[in-house]
Amino acid sequence: MAKQLTRLWVGIDAGKAHHWLTAVDETGTTIWSKKVPNDESAILTALGEILALADQVHWAVDIAGTASALLLALLAAHGQQALYVPGRTVNRMSGSYRGEAKTDARDAYVIAETARLRRDFTSIDVPAQLAADLALLTAHRTDLIADRVRMLNRLRDMLTGIFPALERAFDYADHKGALILLTRHQTPAAIRRHGQARLTAWLKGRNVRNPDAIATTALQAARTQHTTLPGQDVAAGIVAEIATQILALDDRLKHIDQQIRQTFRTHPQAHIIESLPGMGPILGIRVHRRSR
Asked: What ranges do the domains of the chain cover?
């Protein structure tokens, strides 16, 4: 029976479908290396085999997100702590090792060796449930922002086809008042028909900031175009619908930002991370996950 080792360092090249785990001893010799499906029973089997090899096991992973959520939760359940080695660090360290081209096994070995040789990766004990919640919330936020960008591009394209002067008049990505304007007024004739006073009053009634300035800008654009373009009425309806959807999406983003903020502040070291200049919950999560 092989003698149990004192310490091992395990590098984990994490992926959606599977992970590659490589364990090295104090000399950097590979003791254990396998491809492990991202499945609870497979991961538990691998953890059992590795933990049986040494008195103390140090874990290091290159991804702290949804791909590694199950693995990290199972490590936490076994009282194990993982260091997060950023991918850019793995890429830099890879140049120090000879051998085959980039593979999952090689990356896992480099992660293990990096953790063995360096002591500058701070391990922060994050409860598994908190890490999973933050990973899901921030991933969902990223998806919503991508949806918003697509809708804004579609809105601009549609508006350019019927009222190019109004499309140029506002930065719709960062102007709620202009989006509110588009939910009701999308054509030159409609804006001219309402006039300055009525348009300002309508915007003011919807709590738009600087309603007079928005009305003035819209009217200036409307006075430059007196031609009705083909498909105007249908396109105007689509513009109004997209503008309404973007405003609703902005409300969803505000809600999820609040969720992230509340969840992040249950982090054991949230007060330290947020004390850094310019550091808020969302940036704090990214730094926590990527910068160590």
From this structure: 5-123, 133-285
CA dihedral 167, 169, 173, 175 (to 10 degrees): -130
The pLDDT score that the predictor gives to residue 182 is 97
Tell me: domain 5-123, CATH 3.30.420.10, correct? yes
Phi, psi of 183 (to 5 degrees): -70, -15
The tokens of 163 are what? Answer: 């009222």
Helix (H, G, I), strand (E, B) or coil at 231: coil
Give yes or no for a contact between 47 and 24, defined as CB atoms under 8 angstroms apart: no
Please count the other Cβ atoms lying within 10 Å of the Cβ belonging to residue 7: 13
Out of 121-130, 133-142, 171-180, 281-290, least confident range: 281-290
User: pTM value?
Assistant: 0.61
Q: What is the pLDDT of residue 55?
A: 93
Q: What is the pLDDT of residues 25-62, one digit of tens each?
A: 999 999 999 999 998 889 999 999 999 999 999 998 87
CA-CA-CA-CA torsion sign (70, 255, 214, 202): positive
**Assigned CATH class of 133-285:** mainly alpha
From the list 103, 77, 80, the residue with the least C-alpha distance to 90 is 103
Specify the higher pLDDT residue, 58 or 263: 58
Residue 170's alpha-carbon distances to 13, 86, 234, 237, in angstroms, are 46, 40, 22, 19
Calpha distance 287→292 (Å, rounded): 8
For residues 292 and 247, what is the distance between their CA atoms, to the nearest angstrom? 36
The rounded distance, in Å, linking the Cα atoms of 29 and 27 is 6
Which pLDDT band holds residue 292 (cuts at 50, 70, 90)?
very low
Tokens of 249: 């999406």
290 with 124: CB under 8 angstroms? no
